Amino acid sequence: MKTKKIIFTVGQLGNGGLERQLYYLTKDLILNKIDVSCVCWNLEEDSFYFEKFKNLLKDDLYILDQSQKSLKKVLSLRKIIKKTNPDIVISFTSFVNAATFLSTLGLRCDVIGSLRTSADRYIKDGGLKSFFNILFPRKILVNSRVAKKELEKKLIFRCFSKIQFYGNSVDLKKFSLTDQNIFKEYSISVGNIREAKRIDRLILLFNKLREINLEVKHIHVGGGKDFEKIKQQISNNNLEKHVILIGQNSNILKIAEKASMLLHFSEYEGSPNVIMEAMCMGLPIITTNCGDAKYFIENEKNGFVIDPFDVNIFAEKYIFLHNNKSKREQIGRENMRLIKSFDIDQLGNKFLDSISKFNI
């Protein structure tokens, strides 16, 4: 059956990699003459992507009533699905997978769920609720090869679920730097400041660099619930001149122009958008072995994967890149070459090809 109409359900429309990927995908599907609607489960005030989706979808963007309990939201979603009569309903956020599945029971449409992080960690942190959010729907799209392997190791998912990989893409034009010759003043990291991102490791690293009297500067871009906690840790370690938190900033390219490298410290990930975007910018990358990082970064060739995290090895690689401008430039060129195959060009067709493997 040729897909003509899709409804996406999404948890929120904040300034995250998930929302960015859905926005790219929705735009390209519309260009491919697919009728797309989107239903947001929890819309927070000042959600970054709300206006973008509203301008793109107009009346095909639905916002569920925040005062409703979960069961009433399921019923509201069901009404929208019956009204719009899609071929496929796709949950793009793991925590609404089961709710999306329930809303389609008895209706004549296919339903697909998503997993965009580590399967093992998602189940460990969320318990039975997370388990059922992966189990239902039976068809699951994962955005990382690591998560797919984790699911396939578990007998129940191997026997009960149909799992397909659909990786992230990146807008090469948006994240390409126009001038690679600007003086590099600092390293950068980008991401929501929360436990999984392990920004505390950044503090460990800069304490280590200070021990050897290396006077360097780092900028972290991103807000999050642990912002004040990490800011206090920076102050407690007297690192205010070395590690600077600037919160959310939409002008990441301006900041990246003067960056010598990207540092990434996450404990777990799906497919890390920030690594892909840094590759577009021609930045060398030092990262932990989180999610699909090792599928993008090959040691020595286009960056370094530190596995397991070791602050001494991280510092060693930082110092090596800091002192070696020609190596940074070589790695940067290699990253820009490698990332070309992940451009958002043909994103919609790649997505439709992935879901067609479910025999839809």
UniProtKB/TrEMBL annotation:
Keywords: Transferase. Residues 16-172 form the Glycosyltransferase subfamily 4-like N-terminal domain. Residues 184-334 form the Glycosyl transferase family domain. GO terms for molecular function: glycosyltransferase activity. It holds the Pfam family Glycos_transf_1. InterPro entries: Glyco_trans_1, Glyco_trans_4-like_N. This is Glycosyltransferase involved in cell wall bisynthesis.
